[in-house]
């Protein structure tokens, strides 16, 4: 195994009285693609910031190979500068490389950074990171606000990445496609699985079964010791002092285990009563805003109990379609008929309704008091907050103190208190940990009302949707029974027209003068500019490195070196090991690029 380029050793960090990390070890080798998984609030984002060098741990070591460049994309990246090209080059990336990365993610380099949507800001931040050609890439929830096409672009970029990558994400399908290793942050420490995310759930189940058995044995041991104490054997006698201390230690161990056990979410979802059999019937509806066509003639029928997913690129008109179907927006043509006895609950995950300075208690009790009406039944706000894993002390904290996942849980807590027989969820999975996501899936699967779901989480859609409506961004809409995989299987190339139109329009919108940009290679005809440059760098390195290795070997061949200079001998030995590893890695990478170059040229 190659030596790591970035590593943590025995790292500890406390957040006030709460210990976040207590002896964390984590290492990333060159080109290793790993995920970091853990519950909301466990400290995943904080751990990424320690790795990025933005904050320091209270104790432990962070080691970084000299010369290694790190690119870090946080959950909510601040995009600044006059244009997205200015932003993408602000970290030192060359302009032509930044333009190429922005084009890959479908962004006009001349676009202003003012008024960017969440998806555009995310794509700009990712383009900036890839343009910097880092040795280590740290991504915190990179798929948030991305549409499925952008997620697939990100998957392709990571697959071609030469850097090491550590990714925090809740998107199962994404992680299964890009990871080779899993780090699990749990109980203040990190465990490692040297397999991709597809093996994660089975691995965790085995660990949890082992820990449950250990807890059972500890409980039985405490029971035996308590029985011994109850029989009147005094702890004051010296020969029994050790046994008494052992009982106290076991009790403390059990107490720590109980404190570490995560709370169980107690989300509930109730219908407000049975709606009519027909919920929505749309016939030939169309909508345009000015010269832009959002929806051409489209018809659908949604019945009670249906679970309809709406997918498509950002800006394709998914929200507009929902408003048309719910009667909130009149179509330009066609008609929409709504069923009887409809009570709609719209959960908008933009979080715009959560003012940063608002206290959690006030979010849950906007009318004041200490009671929450939960599906028509009063419940104390503290008890209801605990159902969503919030501590009593957090109720007096402002929203800005919450992590992204905690804010999402707060929105769910507020929305799920209201009964409804039609639920509309707009990107409900953003920032949720996987345990919460699994519970939400189970909750929605058992919901006896009608569900309309807007999501870019392919796994989430596949598990829930009975039908999927796709919008391609040009006004075309198609509905297919089943989830995402069913949709793409029955509608191959559905989104291709939009992607091609964006690709063709992109060069005309770039701001850099033609002389400053290298000629664009024909698609799939030869290596990209970045790979061609890297191939030349590797050829130079492979040519020069043998001389360096020979010089180090010659120095170590001196029989008297160790006797007169032990430190020098150790220094030369480590330098030789590093040089040999570097040469082997360069040769391996050169072979991969050269094979790719030959394959592309053969296909022309």
Structural account:
The chain is α/β, with parallel strands linked by helices and 604 residues long. The protein folds into 5 domains: 6-202, 3-Layer(aba) Sandwich (Rossmann fold); 211-260; 264-343 and 419-506, P-loop containing nucleotide triphosphate hydrolases (Rossmann fold, 3-Layer(aba) Sandwich); 358-410, no CATH class; 529-602, Valyl-tRNA synthetase, C-terminal domain (Helix Hairpins, Orthogonal Bundle), CATH 1.10.287.380. It is built from 19 helices and 20 strands. The strands form 5 sheets. The protein has a 6-stranded mixed β-sheet with strand order 5-6-7-3-8-9, sandwiched between helices. α3 crosses α4 (118-131), α7 packs antiparallel against α8 and α17 packs antiparallel against α19 (566-602). The protein is globular and about 95 Å long. The model is unreliable at 233-239, 257-262 and 503-524 (pLDDT under 50).
Ends apart, CA distance between termini: 37 Å
Quickly count the helices.
19
Question: Total domains, how many?
Answer: 5
| Number of distinct beta strands | 20
Give the overall shape.
globular
How are the secondary structure elements laid out?
Layout lengths: L5 E10 L2 E11 L4 E5 L6 H9 L6 E6 L5 E4 L10 H5 L6 H10 L13 H14 L4 E5 L7 H12 L4 E5 L3 H7 L2 E6 L2 E5 L6 H31 L7 H23 L17 E12 L2 E12 L3 E5 L6 H8 L7 E6 L5 E5 L11 H5 L6 E4 L2 E4 H7 L16 H13 L5 E5 L7 H13 L3 E5 L3 H7 L2 E5 L5 E5 L2 H7 L5 H14 L19 H28 L4 H4 L1 H37 L2
Parallel strand pairs: 3-7, 3-8, 5-6, 6-7, 12-18, 12-19, 14-17, 17-18
Antiparallel strand pairs: 1-2, 1-4, 8-9, 10-11, 10-13, 15-16, 19-20
Helix pairs in contact: 3-4, 7-8, 17-19
């Amino acid at each position: 195994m190659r030596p790591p380029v970035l590593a943590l050793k025995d790292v500890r960090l406390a957040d006030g009285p709460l210990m976040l990390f207590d002896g964390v070890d984590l290492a990333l080798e060159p080109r290793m693609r790993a995920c970091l998984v853990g519950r909301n609030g466990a400290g995943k984002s904080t751990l990424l910031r320690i790795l990025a060098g933005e904050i320091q741990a209270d104790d432990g070591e962070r080691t970084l190979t000299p010369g290694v460049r790190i690119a870090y994309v946080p959950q909510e990246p601040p995009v600044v500068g006059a244009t997205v090209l200015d932003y993408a080059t602000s970290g030192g990336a060359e302009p032509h490389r930044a333009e190429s990365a922005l084009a890959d993610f479908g962004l006009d380099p001349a676009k202003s950074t003012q008024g960017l949507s969440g998806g555009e800001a995310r794509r700009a931040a990712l383009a900036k990171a890839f343009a910097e050609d880092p040795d280590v890439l740290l991504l915190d929830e990179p798929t948030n606000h991305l549409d499925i096409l952008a997620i697939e672009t990100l998957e392709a970029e990571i697959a071609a990445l030469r850097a090491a990558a550590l990714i925090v994400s809740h998107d199962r399908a994404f992680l299964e496609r890009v990871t080779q290793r899993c780090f699990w942050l749990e109980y203040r420490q990190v465990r490692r699985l040297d397999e991709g995310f597809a093996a994660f759930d089975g691995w965790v189940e085995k660990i949890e079964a082992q820990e449950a058995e250990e807890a059972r044995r500890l409980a039985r041991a405490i029971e035996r010791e308590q029985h011994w104490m109850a029989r009147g054997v005094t702890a004051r006698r010296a020969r029994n002092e050790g046994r008494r201390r052992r009982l106290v230690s076991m009790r403390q161990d059990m107490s720590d285990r109980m404190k570490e056990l995560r709370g169980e979410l107690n989300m509930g979802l109730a219908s407000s009563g049975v709606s009519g059999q027909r919920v929505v019937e749309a016939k030939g509806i169309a909508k345009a805003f000015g010269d832009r066509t959002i929806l051409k003639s489209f018809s659908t029928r949604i019945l009670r109990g249906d679970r309809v997913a709406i997918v498509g690129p950002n800006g394709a008109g998914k929200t507009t379609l929902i408003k048309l179907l719910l009667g909130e927006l009149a179509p330009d043509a066609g008609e929409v008929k709504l069923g009887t006895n409809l009570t709609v609950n719209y959960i908008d995950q933009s979080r715009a309704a959560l003012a940063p300075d608002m206290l959690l208690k006030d979010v849950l009790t906007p009318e004041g008091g200490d009671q929450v009406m939960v599906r028509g039944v009063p419940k104390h706000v503290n008890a209801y907050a605990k159902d969503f894993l919030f501590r009593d002390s957090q109720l007096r904290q402002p929203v800005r103190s919450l992590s992204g996942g905690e804010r999402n849980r707060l929105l769910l807590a507020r929305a799920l208190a209201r009964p409804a027989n039609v639920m509309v969820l707009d990107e409900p999975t953003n920032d949720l940990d996987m345990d919460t996501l699994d519970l939400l899936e189970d909750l929605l699967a058992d919901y006896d009302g009608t569900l309309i779901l807007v999501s870019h989480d392919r796994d989430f859609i596949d598990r829930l949707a009975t039908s999927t409506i796709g919008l391609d961004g040009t006004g075309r809409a198609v509905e297919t029974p089943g989830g995402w995989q069913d949709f793409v299987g029955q509608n191959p190339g559905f989104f291709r027209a939009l992607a091609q139109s964006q690709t063709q329009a992109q060069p005309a919108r770039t701001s850099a003068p033609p002389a400053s940009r290298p000629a664009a290679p024909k698609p799939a005809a030869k290596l990209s500019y970045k790979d061609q440059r890297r191939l030349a760098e590797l050829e130079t390195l492979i040519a020069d490195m043998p001389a360096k290795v020979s010089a180090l070997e010659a120095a170590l061949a001196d029989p008297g070196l160790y006797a007169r200079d032990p430190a020098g001998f150790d220094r030369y030995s480590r330098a030789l090991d590093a040089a040999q590893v570097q040469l082997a890695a360069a040769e391996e990478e050169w072979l991969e690029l050269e094979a790719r170059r030959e394959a592309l040229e053969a296909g022309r």
